[in-house]
Each structure stands twice: as structure tokens, then as C-alpha cells.
Write a structure and sequence with these properties.
Blueprint (H helix, E strand, L loop, with lengths): L14 H12 L4 H8 L6 H7 L11 E9 L2 E8 L3 H15 L5 E4 L4 E8 L4 H4 L3 H11 L1 H9 L3 E9 L6 E9 L6 H21 L1 H4 L5 E8 L6 E9 L4 H4 L4 H17 L1 H21 L4 H11 L10 E5 L3 E9 L13 H9 L5 H23 L4 H16 L4 H10 L7 H12 L1
Antiparallel strand pairs: 1-2, 3-8, 4-6, 4-7, 5-6, 8-10, 9-10
Length: 436
């Protein structure tokens, strides 16, 4: 078969036909089917087939638990789905430390989400301002049935704003703001926007004072994953003298100053800020995945928020007094605990049960605590022993697995590397000497 030829009707093929087509098209061995068969779920495969398109197997990631998270005086065990062992270990270690030092203090700043209706029109925003009240009445009227259930739960449309698009003449948007209760709200927001859009265009084109600027035309309507007003704050604080477990060879004062230098670098240097914030999302993404939320949307919105002051920067800040260490994370997290996978995926249901069925606001706070815990552990390692010492020791298990070690070899390697730096070549050399 010509490898440049498009595949027709792939979605209508059976699972076996899809796999065989891949084997023939790419020139793979028949062993591929055995590999794919191995990870089929014996009892839940129909469910997983229906979650996505063209499903031929399942891609498993570890489902781990990070204990001892004291958040607003309530103790949590947090489910985390992630392939990097050091993330769960760092989160658990930091959680245990902060549980002895007051725990994580969190608060919801706001829970507002955004949708956008884009349209082209030769008029200006100022031309539309006198009609704001009429537009408000119109928007509430046409969405009344669509928002009824959400309004009964305290949500719905909260406000709107008409804005022009920079550097694009005659291009405008109606920015609509929503509260969506315990749901993430994407479908609700998009439904409302698609109801409003034609009514907005008709409104503009029916007003004599407005249509003299020419007809308005719809461009598109979609929610925004940038949610700068769906914010949670998470903070830890303790006397500097309590930081000894993380200070290593430094005094606690030296450790605190070095930690502050590292955070300030991340605030002012976007290269460092990117990796600094990645450490936050090691924790956040793991909880978002475990609870069936959209980690791509969360990442996109929070990374955009990291630039809201005009330069990409740290999502955390550190305040030091003469005696006190106070570390704060502020991040947008548009999460939900109803709808989507929460109604379908058994492991998502398990996660929410482990977390005692949190509301969306509670889940925002739990997730932020996981993010701050991981970042705290990473920065503490960076300014003391360096990141590789702890990371590679935890990565040792993966290296040993990749080298097909026996239980006896694994045991001896774990013992040997307690006092040695772990590297791929170091493990390889150790095994060679052991096997010889």
C-alpha cells in the first residue's frame, strides 16, 4: 500500500481491522496486536471504547495517593495520576511537613468563567454603549430556558462587555461572563453563546443608528479557557526556624534566603519561570487527570495567566520577615465535579469519593495545594542538594525495569545506590559488574 494514500472509512473498521491496517501500513510485526490486547480492560472496555474515537487499547498511567494534606484544617488523601514517581513522593513529603506547620490555607478569589462572541462590524464599541441595558434584557430573555437549571444552582450569566480586538479593524467581541456551579461548564457556556450570537447580530442590524455603519456579521462563538477571574489562592506559612528538615547543610535563615532568591528569579526571568511553573503543574495536572477534568484547558488558562502582568512570570511569591516564611500560589483553575467524565469513568468516581465528594470550589483548593506542595519541594531541592539527587533515586525503579532486572538484582541495586548518584550509565555499569 502507498503510505501517502489516505485511509478511507477507518472509523467504521472493527478493532481488529484497524490494528491489521496499522501493521500493514507501517510495516510492523504481528506482535503489536498482542501488546495492544494486553491492555484491554476485561470488564470496562465498552465504556472506554465509547469515551474516545478509534479506540484499540488503553494507555495506563499509575494511580497514586498522596497522604497528609491538611487543607483549611481538613485532612485529605489526594489521588494523583502521573508517570513521574518523584512527583507523588515530593507532594507527600511536603504535605507531611506542612501538616505539622499549620497546613495549607486556601481561599477562592472568584469563580467567574468567560465566553466570547466575535463579530465583524464597521461601528465602534462606543456606538453600542448606549444600548447596553437593552442588550442585557435581550441576553437574559433569549437564554432564560437554557440557564434556568444553572440559575437554580446559583450560577448563570453574570455580566457582559463589548470589546474591540486589538490590531483588527472592525472586529469586536461580546465577552460574556458566567458562573457554572460545580460543573466546569464548557457545554453550558457554548450553548448560551450560540443562542445569543444570532440575536446580537439581529439586534445590531435592526437599529437605525447602528445599521448605518453597515451590517454586522457573526464570526464565531466559543468559551475561553483563559479564566483570570476563576482564581484560587493557596498559602503555607511557618517560622523560619521550622524549615530545618528541608535546609540540609544550610542554616534555616540561609535556606529561606536562598529559597527567596530562587522564587524572585522565577518572577523576573521567563526561562526559569517556565520550569518553576512546570513544577506547580506536576501536582495540579496529576489531580486534574485523577478527577476527570481537562488538563489541557487548565494548563492553557494558567499559563496565560502567568503573563497577565505583561511578562511570563512565576505563579508563586515568597514573603520573608525576620522570623516568618510565607509562600503563596495564585492560579486560575476552572474545575468541575459534575458532568463530563465524572459521570462515566469509574476511577474519576473513586477519586471524588476519596476526596469526600468535593464541590468544584473545594476541588480548586485541593488541586492548588497539590501544586504548591510539589513546587515547594522542587525549589527546596534546587537550592540545597540539587534536583537530580532525589529525582534520580526515585527514577531508579524505571531504569531497573527498562534493563529487565531480576528481583535479586533490583534489591542489590537499590542498596548500592543509597549512597551513590543515580544515572542511566551508572546503573548500566553496576549491572554489568554484578552480572559478570
Amino acid at each position: 500500500m502507498d503510505k501517502k494514500e489516505t485511509i478511507r472509512g477507518f472509523s467504521r473498521m472493527s478493532r481488529e481491522e484497524k490494528i491489521q491496517h496499522v501493521i500493514e501500513h507501517v510495516g510492523l510485526s504481528e506482535d503489536l496486536k498482542q501488546d495492544l490486547d494486553r491492555y484491554l480492560h476485561p470488564s470496562e472496555q465498552t465504556l472506554f471504547n465509547n469515551i474516545s474515537e478509534n479506540t484499540v487499547s488503553n494507555y495506563y498511567l499509575p494511580y497514586s495517593l498522596a497522604p497528609n494534606f491538611l487543607i483549611n484544617d481538613t485532612m485529605y488523601i489526594i489521588p494523583m495520576v502521573i508517570e513521574e514517581s518523584s512527583v507523588v513522593a515530593a507532594a507527600s513529603k511536603a504535605a507531611s511537613f506542612w501538616a505539622k506547620n499549620g497546613g495549607f490555607k486556601t481561599r477562592i478569589i472568584n469563580v467567574e468563567k468567560n465566553g466570547q462572541i466575535f463579530f465583524s462590524w464597521a461601528g465602534t464599541v462606543d456606538d453600542l454603549k448606549p444600548y447596553s441595558k437593552e442588550l442585557e434584557i435581550l441576553i437574559n430573555k433569549v437564554t432564560e430556558s437554557a440557564t434556568a437549571n444553572m440559575r437554580s444552582r446559583g450560577g448563570g450569566i453574570t455580566s457582559f462587555e463589548i470589546k474591540s480586538i486589538d490590531n483588527m479593524p472592525n472586529t469586536h467581541q461580546l465577552l460574556v461572563k458566567f458562573k457554572t456551579g460545580d460543573s466546569m461548564g464548557a457545554n453550558f457556556i457554548n450553548t448560551c453563546l450560540e443562542i445569543i450570537s444570532p440575536e446580537l447580530i439581529h439586534f445590531i442590524n435592526s437599529k437605525d443608528e447602528l445599521k448605518r455603519h453597515g451590517n454586522a456579521k457573526s464570526i464565531m462563538s466559543i468559551l475561553s479557557n483563559y479564566t483570570p477571574n476563576c482564581l484560587v489562592e493557596c498559602q503555607v506559612s511557618c517560622p523560619i526556624e521550622q524549615l530545618k528538615p528541608y535546609a540540609g547543610e544550610f542554616s534555616t535563615q540561609e535556606f529561606a534566603q536562598r529559597f527567596k532568591q530562587a522564587v524572585d528569579i522565577a518572577i523576573n526571568d521567563p526561562y526559569r519561570a517556565t520550569t518553576h511553573n512546570k513544577g506547580i503543574f506536576n501536582g495540579i495536572d496529576a489531580v486534574v487527570l485523577a478527577t476527570g477534568n481537562d488538563f489541557r484547558a487548565i494548563e492553557a488558562g494558567a499559563q496565560a495567566y502567568a503573563s497577565h502582568n505583561g511578562q511570563y512570570s512565576s505563579l508563586t511569591k515568597l514573603e520573608l520577615s525576620a522570623t516568618e516564611f510565607t509562600y503563596t500560589l495564585e492560579v486560575p483553575l476552572a474545575l468541575g465535579t459534575v458532568g463530563g467524565l465524572t459521570n462515566v469513568h469509574p476511577m474519576v468516581k473513586a477519586s471524588l469519593e476519596i476526596l469526600n465528594q468535593p464541590s468544584a470550589e473545594q476541588l480548586m483548593q485541593i488541586t492548588a495545594a497539590a501544586g504548591l506542595a510539589n513546587n515547594f519541594g522542587a525549589v527546596a531541592a534546587l537550592v540545597t542538594t540539587g534536583i537530580q539527587k532525589g529525582h534520580m533515586k526515585l527514577h531508579l525503579s524505571n531504569i531497573l525495569t527498562s534493563m529487565n532486572t531480576t528481583d535479586e538484582e533490583r534489591e542489590k541495586a537499590n542498596e548500592y545506590f543509597k549512597n551513590e548518584t543515580v544515572s542511566y550509565s551508572g546503573v548500566e555499569n553496576f549491572l554489568k559488574s554484578l552480572r559478570n
